[in-house]
Amino acid sequence: MTKENRTTINNPQRKDSSSKLIFGDNILCSQFLRDYADMEILRNIQPEDIVDVSERYVPLYSTERDSDTVKRVNIGKYVQIENNENTLDLPLYIVSLVEHKTKVEYNVAMQILRYMIHIWEDYEKEMNKKYHLISARKDFRYPPILPIVYYEGKRRWTAPLDLADRIFCKELLGDYLPHFKYQMVGLHDYSNEELLDRGDEISLAMLINKIEGVEDMEAFRRLPDERMDEILRDTPEYLLDIMEKLLRALLYSMNLEQDEAEITVSKIKERKMARLFENVTFDFQEEKRKMREATEQADRFCVEMQKKMEKMEKEVEKRAELLEKRENSLEKREKLLEERMQRNLAISRRIARLLRQGCSDMEIKENLINEFNLSEEQADEACRDAFEN
């Protein structure tokens, strides 16, 4: 295996698997909801409040949706609804839908809506089984759903957050259209320092997920050692296993040798997060040089293509000018021919009228010279043509 092949970093499949590892664990998921979901009701959510119900809904879609997760979060103990004595008799919970995107997905609002409809329909059936026809009652309510898009791409998220913005001529129906917004949590909207300030395992996982290139890995190595190690001080062993899987996926996507990768991964079990990449034989300067050369090569290619495009545009303009000149020349010829035909027709009519008046050849000739400004030769030719026809 060549050095060039061994240092490939970006791997879309790693993104999907790492996101599934993060949101598949209730501790990491609860930390994510507390730290990054902009909802006051979720500030105190604990792992025991979360139930993963992904298997109930995700299989409704293709395997491409396999990285989606659906969580049922029990918020009953954190919510108090006024004038409702039966609050505790009904399961008050919020379904948090987290989508994992590595590039801008413009139809994500519609994907989320499909989940929401399935969740509400499923909830209605479940409640009707427990309490006969309860959904037909006046006080029946569907559970709240918080849709979240977890976006790991570096490009700015430009998809509309409101479903109505995906509907043609939405202003014609206004409030009669379905309106809902999803919350977008962009991984790259947070600096490494902001993630580190959270001081929990989910932030470390997100720091690992941010690594897509040489600069990202260098930035990770520059983070404060003590603060990095402090986060893992009381982390349970099974969470360390998850962190290992995240890092292993990253290192293998770089095509590192297995021994080298496993030595690096072992740093997590040793709770030495700050020294994670100290044994990775990765020539950052060499990679920067390669990246710089690749960028320069791409720039040269763009310049060459631009020159070719400009040359082609000039050639097209030149051909267009020639065609226009030809068209103008043809148009002038047609105009001259038309004028000549009209003049000859007028001369013929004048000769015929003079003949009917009994004029002599000399009188006709003089009339044509004076009326049409002809020379003697032209007048003779016109008379000759008239007499022949």
Task: Explain the overall architecture.
With 389 residues, the protein is an alpha/beta fold. It has two domains: 3-296, no CATH class; 297-388, no CATH class. The chain contains 14 helices and five strands. β3, α5 and β4 (145-151) form a beta-alpha-beta unit. α13 (361-372) packs across α14. The termini are far apart.
Question: Which keywords apply here?
Answer:
single chain; 389 residues; alpha/beta; 14 helices; 7% strand; elongated
How many structural domains can be distinguished in the coordinates? Answer: 2
Topology order in helix (H) and strand (E) letters:
HHHEHEEHEEHHHHHHHHH
Query: Low-confidence parts lasting 5 or more residues at pLDDT below 50?
Result: 1-14, 85-92
The proportion of residues forming helix, as a percent range, comes to 40-55%
Largest sheet: 5 strands, mixed
Described by the principal axes of the CA atoms, the overall outline is elongated
Report the portion of residues in β strands: 5-15%
The number of helices is 14
Short description:
This protein has helices at residues 3-6, 12-23, 26-36, 54-57, 108-130, 192-198, 201-209, 214-221, 225-231, 237-253, 258-269, 284-356, 361-372, 376-388; strands at residues 50-52, 69-74, 93-101, 145-151, 183-186. It is of the alpha/beta class. A five-stranded mixed beta sheet has the order 1-2-3-4-5, sandwiched between helices.
